[in-house]
């Protein structure tokens, strides 16, 4: 598996954590996804999720 797949998985899990109102877990998963995203291919999705998390 490549890092992009791991990053996308972490991003998906962060979205699920946000839906369940687990802000700390979602934040941790987003940070891990950001570390795995070497080519900034997930940067826009990560930024959008961080904006959504501010509303929680």
Helix and strand run: HHH
Please give the domain count.
1
Number of helices: 3
Major sheet characteristics: none
Structural class: mainly alpha
Q: Which geometry do the CA atoms define? A: globular
Estimate the mean pLDDT confidence. 91
Low-confidence stretches: none
Strand content: under 5%
Q: How far apart, in Å, are the first and last alpha carbons?
A: 32 Å
Using the CA coordinates, give the radius of gyration.
10 Å
Architecture overview:
The chain has 56 residues and is mostly helical. It has helices spanning 3-19, 23-36, 43-53. The protein has one domain (3-53). It has 3 helices and no strands. The mean pLDDT is 91.
Observed structural traits:
56 residues; mainly alpha; 75% helix; globular
Fold topology:
Blueprint: H1 3-19, H2 23-36, H3 43-53
């Amino acid at each position: 598996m490549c890092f992009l797949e791991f990053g996308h998985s972490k991003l998906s899990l962060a979205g699920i954590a946000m839906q369940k109102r687990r802000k700390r877990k979602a934040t941790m998963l987003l940070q891990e996804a950001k570390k795995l995203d070497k080519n900034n291919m997930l940067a826009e999705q990560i930024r959008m999720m961080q904006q959504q998390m501010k509303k929680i």
